[in-house]
Each structure stands twice: as structure tokens, then as C-alpha cells.
Amino acid sequence: MADGPSGSGKGSLALRIARHFGFHLLDSGAIYRLAALKSLRQGVDLADEKAVAKVLNDFSIRFVEGDELSIPYLDDEDVSSQIRLETTGDAASQIAQYPSVRKLLLERQQQCFQPPGLVADGRDMGTVVFPNARIKFFLYASPEIRAQRRHKQLISMGISASIAQLESEISERDERDRNRSESPLVASTDALVVDSSLLDLNQVTELMISHIEKVNQNRPL
Ligand code: DC
After folding, report:
1. What is the mean pLDDT of the chain?
2. Which pTM was predicted?
3. d(CA 135, CA 22)
4. How far apart are CA 185 and CA 140, in angstroms?
5. pLDDT tens, 76-89?
6. What ligand 1 atom has the least distance to the C-alpha of 7?
7. Which of 62, 114, 161, 220 is most buried, judged by most C-beta within 10 A?
8. Domain segments of the chain: what residues?
9. Nearest residue CA, atom 19 of ligand 1?
10. Is 123 in the pocket of ligand 1 (CB under 6 A)?
11. Does residue 28's CB lie within 6 angstroms of at least one atom of ligand 1?
């Protein structure tokens, strides 16, 4: 399980680790983003927990394996680029504060745990959704570095953005994710905390794989 804030690299790392071990992958943030997109499209007031939860009672999502990443569908429409917009991420962070929303999305996430295994990426994978996970990581990176990474990611998708604005949005979203009472963004006490600020993706991947192999050697399945 890999938890951490946006831009800590957890998404790319989770994908690499899942590929390496031939495991399934859960991008739980994508589920929150799909829920946010649905709420935005229905025009509900995001400050109204009950109204948001009502919309999510009738909520059809699925993921289809693509060449690279899996493709998210909302009500049978491919919404890959829409869910990556900052407005959707911000709305996801707002609705993710609500206990009723988290409860509605919990089971969908837990159902992803299928043989031969799962790599789950999120904020509360190791603390709430999969507390008994065999191996847990908490990825950290400074807001400045994360804004630069997000900027690069958005540009590669043809979406323009300002680094300064991204950094302030990231800090604001972190603040909200960390301080909410329900499933806050916090490292599980048994997670290995990895600061990826000064490491590249290959270095962090190697570090994580070697930790997993060490645990598996010392504690066979
Ligand atoms: O990882 P991400 O940026 O795609 O996540 C978008 C938002 O969804 C994030 O700001 C908080 C919320 N989220 C959450 O509360 N719990 C998760 N397990 C994953 C995401």
C-alpha cells in the first residue's frame, strides 16, 4: 500500500511496483476524482454533504485496462483527461472530507483486493481501507518539488498551468487532506516513510522493491 500527498510520485511508483510483481493496481484518488466529476456535472453544491452523497448513491464507474494506464469511465464515458484537471482534484479533496462519501466509496476500493495481490495508492490505504496490508509505504515530497512534477505532467497532457499557482493549490489541498477528521492524510505507524524529494523515480522504485523483497524473505507468505 502506498499513501502520500499528490505529486509525491506515488501514482507512478504504484504502477511500477504493480507491474514488477504482476499485481493489480488501485488508484483510489481516481475513484474520488470520478465521484467529484459526477457531483460537478450534476451541479450539486459541494458544501452540501447530503446532496453529494445522494448523487453518489447512483454512481456508475469502471476502469478498463489500457496500454499504459487503466482508463476511467463515468457513466460509460471515458473521462481520463477530465478527472486529471485541477478543478476536479480540488472538488475531490472537498468531497473526500465527508464521512458519508468515504463510506460509500470504501467497499468499491476493498473489492479491488484480488489474487495474486494489489498495490493500492491513496491517502488512507494503510490506515483505513487495508489496515492489515502486508507492506505499507508513506511517500513524502516537498510542495515545491510536487508542483514542478504536476506541472510537467499537465504540460505533457496538453494542459497549461502556472507552477506558483499549482504549489499554492497543492499546499491548500494538503492542509485540508491532513486536517480532516475522517481518514486524514497520515502515515500508518507501521509504514516505511520515504522522502522522494531528492530521488528520481528509478531510485525510489529500487528502494521500494528491495524493501518488499527483504520483507518477503524474512516473512514468507
Ligand atoms: O491522489 P489524487 O490527487 O488523485 O486524489 C484526489 C483527492 O482525493 C485528494 O485531494 C484527496 C482525495 N483522496 C482521499 O481522500 N483518499 C484517498 N485514498 C485518495 C484520494
Report:
1. 91
2. 0.88
3. 16
4. 11
5. 999 999 998 889 99
6. 3
7. 161
8. 2-208
9. 29
10. yes
11. yes
Separation between Cα atoms, residue 95 and residue 34, nearest integer Å: 11
Q: Is 72 in the pocket of ligand 1 (CB under 6 A)?
A: no
Angle CA(71)–CA(47)–CA(37) in degrees, nearest 5? 15
Is 2-208 assigned to CATH 3.30.1360.120? Answer: no
- The ranges of the chain with pLDDT < 50 are none
First to last CA, the chain: 16
Three-state SS sequence of the chain: CEECCCCCCHHHHHHHHHHHHCCEEEEHHHHHHHHHHHHHHHCCCCCCHHHHHHHCCCCCEEEEECCCCEEEEECCEECHHHHHCHHHHHHHHHHCCCHHHHHHHHHHHHCCCCCCCEEEEECCHHHHHCCCCCCCEEEECCHHHHHHHHHHHHHHCCCCCCHHHHHHHHHHHHHHHHHCCCCCCCCCCCCEEEECCCCCHHHHHHHHHHHHHHHHHHCCC
Reported as half-sphere exposure (CB side, CA atoms, 13 A), residue 123 has a value of 26
Q: Is 15 in the pocket of ligand 1 (CB under 6 A)?
A: no
Q: 158 CA distance to ligand 1 centroid (A)?
A: 22
Angle between helices 86-95 and 163-179 (to 10 degrees): 10
